[in-house]
Design brief:
This protein has 13 helices and nine strands. 33% of the residues are buried. The radius of gyration is 19 Å and the shape is globular. The structure holds ligand C2E and magnesium ion (3 copies). It comes from Halanaerobium saccharolyticum subsp. saccharolyticum DSM 6643.
Length: 279
Amino acid sequence: YLVDKRKNNYKIYNKKLFIDKVEFESLHQDLIQAINNEDLFLEFQPKVNTYSERIVSFEALIRWNHCNKGIIQPDEFISIAEKTGMIKKIGVWVLDQTFKQLEEWEKIGFDDIVISINMSEIELNDPNIIKIIKKISSSYSIANKKIEFEITERSFKEVSTDVMNELKRMGFLISLDDFGTGYSSLSYFGKSPFDLLKLDKIFIDNIYKEKSRLIVESVINLAHKFDVKVIAEGVETKEQLEILRKIECDYIQGYYFYKPMSASKITVILNNLKKNSST
Ligand code: C2E
Ligand code: MG
Ligand code: MG
Ligand code: MG
């Protein structure tokens, strides 16, 4: 099923897959192996400043190199990992890898990089989550402020404010992912400790339409009043970029600028940018 889907190049965005019990169990078993066999890997997608177009940070996105199904995208296995609790193990791995990557980039002179990672409510509701994060953090010489936790609007309301506040206190950045797709409440702005709001691609897809543009513009204005920066997800065209510039969206993420890439490709890009800026 997964293979056929890829053959037809059918791309799902932000949707949970429907699979039957047998497929679920077989993928679950494969996923246990995947962690042990180091078949999971991260790609990094740059985020840029809307006006300077300079890279400001990266989002780490997990992939699974399945032994006979090829590369499996997170939309196809994260929900399985969440339902089986395996997401906790995966989350630890992602955080550890991210610290490791930051350390590697720092070693070769890129010391002002921020990486965001996605965290589901299942990970954040683990009663030991703060202890776990502290332990990983203490084994690297990287400041916590270089890591941002992306939490979807849907997950956000399921997570205790104590955990969120503690993450902030520890220096981590927090962003509200897929904004606009949950049951948004404007009261979030007054009391929640997030630094960045990620506008869901669905609004960007429709930004040519007057109504969508007005919603996005109002959200940006409101966010700015609360000192929250806004990033647009899934920007694919110049026209979208130009509209987002006019309505003062701070950052852009999307195929128009960069797709998610391997760490080594990112290193090449960073080196080229450095060369160009020093000549
Ligand atoms: P997300 O956090 O909202 O990530 C954005 C998704 O949009 C990514 O899909 C990214 O590759 C894709 N994207 C970025 N720019 C564009 C664009 O211009 N056009 C289109 N069509 N797509 C674009 P991806 O990598 O397949 O990840 C899907 C979701 O899986 C993520 O949504 C996130 O919720 C989840 N996820 C990914 N990695 C992790 C992880 O390490 N842990 C957890 N818990 N969830 C993860
Ligand atoms: Mg998403
Ligand atoms: Mg995200
Ligand atoms: Mg998102």
